[in-house]
Write a structure and sequence with these properties.
Order of helices and strands: HEEEEEEHEEE
Structural class: alpha+beta
Radius of gyration: 27 Å
Number of helices: 2
Strand content: 35-45%
Oligomer: single chain
């Protein structure tokens, strides 16, 4: 078989393309985090030891994800602009100072809330939450049914209620965090946060 110049160029191009594909696959494997023995490394979703008041909930085998953590914090409202009458589309905010089980300050809780619908039994509200803690930030969001302010903002015998947020992420010790935040409103100015991190 005679190989002319045109066939030689074709064979050279095919060889170069094959080498490029092989090199690309090797690079993709390295980018995916393959270890020296082919074992894939896995990034942890939650790092660090947590804020004051945290406690571990069990442990896993060595090399597995970090153990789940729970933070139980109490809040005292220091600012808010909740209107007497909630209006769909009109946002309000709340801000709390947070303390751990020993009464030590550990950060703040801030939420921006927007009623979507308002009726005689309450309002359906969209909310975003930011917990600014000593070792990082936790962000969360939710949609919930809120009792009307007339029922919850009274100073004497306010209605207790709670709602659940989904953790959407965080920074520093809470980088890429997942889990939930349950907030129980004990009174007009006091709440308890239970943060469960996966």
């Amino acid at each position: 078989m005679t190989i002319d110049r045109r066939n030689a160029l074709r064979l050279t191009s095919l060889a170069a393309a094959g080498a490029g594909i092989t090199g690309g696959l090797a690079g993709a494997a390295r980018a995916a985090g393959s270890g020296p023995e082919g074992s894939r490394t896995e990034a942890s979703g939650v790092r660090g030891s947590g804020a004051n008041g945290s406690r571990a909930r069990g442990s896993g085998p060595e090399g597995s994800r970090p153990t789940a953590r729970q933070l139980v914090l109490t809040g005292k409202r220091t600012a808010a602009d909740i209107p007497d009458v909630l209006v769909p589309g009109t946002s309000y905010f709340v801000h709390y100072e947070l303390r751990d089980a020993n009464g030590n300050p550990v950060g703040t809780e801030s939420a921006q809330c927007t009623p979507v619908t308002v009726g005689p039994d309450g309002a359906f509200v969209l909310a975003s939450l930011v917990l600014l803690l000593a070792d990082g930030i936790i962000t969360a969001s939710t949609a919930f049914q809120r009792p009307l302010p007339a029922l919850t903002e009274v100073l004497v015998a306010p209605r207790r209620w709670s709602h659940l947020f989904a953790v959407t992420g965080g920074t520093a010790a809470y980088d890429a965090a997942t889990g939930s935040v349950t907030i129980e409103h004990l009174s007009r100015e006091d709440d308890v946060l239970t943060v469960d991190l996966d």
